[in-house]
Specification:
Elements (H helix, E strand, L loop, with lengths): L5 H10 L4 E2 H4 L5 H13 L3 E13 L1 H9 L2 H11 L4 E2 L3 H5 L1 H13 L3 E4 L2 E4 L7 H12 L5 H9 L3 E13 L16 H6 L26 H15 L3 E2 L6 E3 H4 L48 H13 L14 H5 L1 E3 L4 H11 L6 E10 L11 E12 L3 H13 L6 E8 L2 E11 L4 E11 L1 H7 L5 E9 L1 H8 L14 H6 L9
Parallel strand pairs: 7-10
Antiparallel strand pairs: 1-6, 2-6, 3-5, 4-5, 8-9, 10-11, 11-15, 12-13, 13-14, 14-15
Helix pairs in contact: 4-8, 5-7, 13-17
The protein binds phenylalanine.
Length: about 500
Amino acid sequence: MASDMTAPILDALSSADGPILSSDAFPSTPSLTIKAALDRLASRSMVTYDTIDREVVVLTPEGEDIAANGSHEAKVFQAVAAALDGLKISDLPCIVGKDSAKVGQGNAFKRGWIKKDKDLLRPNTESIHDETKEQLQTIKETQTHPDAKVVADLKKRKLVTTQKAISFKISKGPKYARQFVKEETDLTAEMLADGSWKTASFKPYNFKAKGAPTPSGALHPLNKVRQEFRNIFFEMGFEEMPTNRFVETGFWNFDALFVPQQHPARDLQDTFYISDPAKADPPREDPPNNPHLKPAEKPRDYKEYWENVRQVHETGKYGSIGYRYPWSADESLRLLLRTHTTSVSTYMLHKLAANPRPARYFSIDRVFRNEAVDATHLAEFHQIEGVIADFGLTLGGLIGFMEVFFAKMGIHRLRFKPAYNPYTEPSMEIFGYHTGLGKWVEIGNSGMFRPEMLEPMGIPKDMRVYGWGLSLERPTMIKYGVSNIRDLLGHKVDLNFIETNPAVRLEKD
Ligand code: PHE
């Protein structure tokens, strides 16, 4: 290593009687280079050292010029002395330069070196003593001057500046030696075989060294925001619904929600249908030993439910006149990728109807829509969905609940806009004022489930159910400042972004 100073330092110490000063021994070596070597030597107790901060005086470019070529006034004197018949004042700048002429002429008069004879300059002395040049030369060699007044004066004249310099006072340490022996970092098989381990010197462990970062997995931002939402739901007494069914039937995704079979959302352009197998088996009664039923749950008669749904669509039932169209069983058995997690909520409400009681459920999982992909839309995204079933619920209660729910994620101003969903009445779009973005943003969709959806499954007439849904992507993009959804999800995602993004915190009240 060209810049390794360990050997020069050990050499310098061996020929010195006591401590050495790095600024004397190695005046032109950068202090960082010296310190690196000192730290290596000190870690083996070969040297000890103290750091000395001192102030050094260095020449400015103008000072350098004077140290080499003389002061302005000396230049003027020389020019005047060289002109045997006197020097015209107006010729001076051409000979010594404009700057030297201006400053030097006055100083040369002050020192009595030249005199004026009409418009001619003549020398007033045989020889001069150029003090400024000498002072600057001393400073250039020693980085200091014995007379502090001189330094102050030169500084005022902008010929020198002062700087901080670090130097080291170096002494021999308890384990000083002339040679810096390379220390072994590994005990090798060869060293054991040839016996060299007995005399080798081993490098001690450095317990202060930082460990290398271990590669590890990292949570995706969507997962972090999801966890924050889960915490809010758990705090508010919600149970998490099982959302592991990405493939659903038209029945659970649409028919059970009173979505007519001609509804545009059921078009191929909006929904991904499964081609193989394209259809589910028709519904049947729960077998008495259904392993999915909890001990307290009664087996359910899905055939009866399915028949109720057909009737409420086709002819009307439960006080509703229905849609009055021929309902197709095949359409309701078509397999598709669920377009919302309300299919899961419906399934859970149907289970609840077997034993109706107040309940709060939520889910956060993936849904699929056959949509054109752009900066804010993908063909799959995550929905956050909640349902509350209870007796005596009102629309005012839903609005009040939303205010509490969204306040928990730092959204305090809400607006509700009447909307339409086939399965809720009334329905409301929820807008929140985002202080960071400074505008109103749509944050969710909500409503009270219709009797045409609840009564076929056996929910009692006086039980009301709130439902609402929002996307997980939108708050995540806002939180992490991501403007293109494709930077968050999909094959173009920057893994470094995933590994280094911070934990999310929804501002709490
Ligand atoms: N399913 C609705 C959506 O996809 C959200 C919603 C759920 C609305 C429950 C009302 C009730 O936007």
